[in-house]
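TODO from last week: model Small acid-soluble spore protein.
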Amino acid sequence: MGRRNRGLMSEALKYELAKEMGVLDIVQREGWGSVPSRYCGNLVKLAIERAERSLQTENLFRS
């Protein structure tokens, strides 16, 4: 199995979510490795929620 060459989330989305969560200053100052794991988990959760909402919206327009 090959490795992926790109992440699942765009950099723009990561930064947008970091800003929403209030950790953008940490990311900009120290990098993603300095963000506490609790916040990283919440960032992933937010990304999943957005993706689910997007899919629901797409399905509404297709119906």
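Done. Residues 11-62 form one domain.
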